[in-house]
Design brief:
50% helix, globular, 138 residues
C-alpha cells in the first residue's frame, strides 16, 4: 500500500510517497502554489498518479500540544483533500519536522536557495517516516 505524506505550506507543499509495501519512504516532490484549492488539486492528482491508498497530512501543533491557526488551515486542507480523493487523510503531528529538515539539509551542505527548494520535501519525508514507524509498531 502506497502512503503519501503531505507537508502543507503557504507557498510550497512537500510530498513524500512510500514504496509499494508501505514500509520505506521513496520519491519526493514539491508543489509550488499559494492557493489551497490549487494545491489540493495537485496533491490529489499526484496521489492518483502514484497510486496512493492512504494520505497523511502533517498537523502543526505547538510545543505544548495545542493547536493554532496553522493547524486549522491544515485541517481545512485535509478536508478538501478528502473531498477530492475519497480518502480520509490521517492527521499526523509534525512538530519540529521543518526544523529538523533545515538541520539535515544544512548538515549536508545545502544552504540558501538550494535548501529552500527542498526543505518541504524533506519535511514530508520526516512526516512519512514517523508515520511508517508508528504503523510498524502497532
Amino acid at each position: 500500500m502506497r502512503i503519501l505524506a503531505i507537508d502543507y505550506g503557504d507557498a510550497r507543499t512537500g510530498l513524500a510517497v512510500s514504496d509499494a509495501t508501505g514500509t520505506i519512504a521513496g520519491e519526493t516532490r514539491v508543489i509550488r502554489s499559494r492557493r489551497m484549492e490549487q494545491t489540493a488539486e495537485a496533491v490529489a492528482a499526484a496521489a492518483a498518479e502514484l497510486g496512493a491508498e492512504e494520505l497523511v497530512v502533517g498537523l502543526p501543533r505547538n510545543m505544548d500540544g495545542t493547536e493554532g491557526p496553522r493547524a486549522a488551515l491544515c485541517r481545512d486542507f485535509a478536508a478538501h483533500l478528502a473531498d477530492l480523493t475519497g480518502l480520509e487523510p490521517v492527521l499526523w503531528d509534525e512538530r519540529r519536522t521543518t526544523v529538523d529538515a533545515h538541520r539535515i539539509l544544512s548538515d549536508n551542505g545545502r544552504h540558501g536557495k538550494r535548501r529552500k527548494e527542498t526543505v518541504d520535501a524533506v519535511a514530508a519525508t520526516l512526516i512519512l517516516e514517523g508515520y511508517l514507524a508508528y504503523r510498524r509498531g502497532r
